[in-house]
Amino acid sequence: QVQLAESGGGLVQAGGSLRLSCAASGRTFSNYAMGWFRRAPGKEREFVAAINWSGGRTVYADSVKGRFTISRDNARNTAYLQMDSLKPEDTAVYYCTTGPTGNIRGRTGLDYDYWGQGTQVTVSS
C-alpha cells in the first residue's frame, strides 16, 4: 500500500521560507512522478508543482513560479517543496501526491493516484 507522509508545515511571516517534505513508501519511489497541491480555506484544491521520476522535468503553477522549488531524492524516497518569499495568500493545507507513471501527466487531481494527509502552512502578514 502506498503511503505519503508530509512534514515541515508551520507558521511563518510573509517573506519567509519553509521546506516541506514528503516521505513515500509502498512502491518503487523512483518510478513515479510526484506533485504538490494545496487547498486554502473556502477554495478549491489547486495544483502547485510536479516533478518527473528523475527530477529532470518540473512544472509550476504561475502563482508560485520563481518562489517555490520542487525536488526529489530517490535514494531517500522523499520529495520536497522549498517555499521562499512566502505570501499570506500561500496559506493553505499542502498535499503531497504521486502519479501513476514516471512522467508528469497534468495539473489536475485526476492525474495523480495517491495522496498524503496534508500539512498546514500559515503565512502571517
Please report the distance between the alpha carbons of the first and last residues: 40 Å
Q: Structural class, please?
A: mainly beta
Q: Please give the count of helices.
A: 0
- Bin the helical content: under 10%
SSE sequence, one letter per element: EEEEEEEEEEE
* CA radius of gyration: 13 Å
Determine the mean pLDDT.
Answer: 97
- Catalogue the unreliable spans: none
CA-based shape: globular
Largest β-sheet summary: 7 strands, mixed
Strand runs, count = 11
Query: Beta-strand level of the residues, as a percent range?
Result: over 45%
Description of the molecule:
With 125 residues, the chain is an all-beta fold. 0% of the residues lie in helices and 47% in strands. The protein has strands spanning 3-7, 10-13, 18-25, 34-39, 46-51, 58-60, 68-73, 78-83, 92-98, 114-115, 119-124. The mean pLDDT is 97.
Topology:
Elements: E1 3-7, E2 10-13, E3 18-25, E4 34-39, E5 46-51, E6 58-60, E7 68-73, E8 78-83, E9 92-98, E10 114-115, E11 119-124
Parallel strand pairs: 2-11
Antiparallel strand pairs: 1-3, 3-8, 4-5, 4-9, 5-6, 7-8, 9-10, 9-11
Tags for this model:
globular, 4-stranded antiparallel sheet, 11 strands, mainly beta, single chain
Describe the structure concisely for a colleague.
By secondary structure, this protein is mainly β. It has strands spanning about 5, 10-15, 20-25, 35-40, 45-50, 60, 70-75, 80-85, 90-100, 115, 120-125.
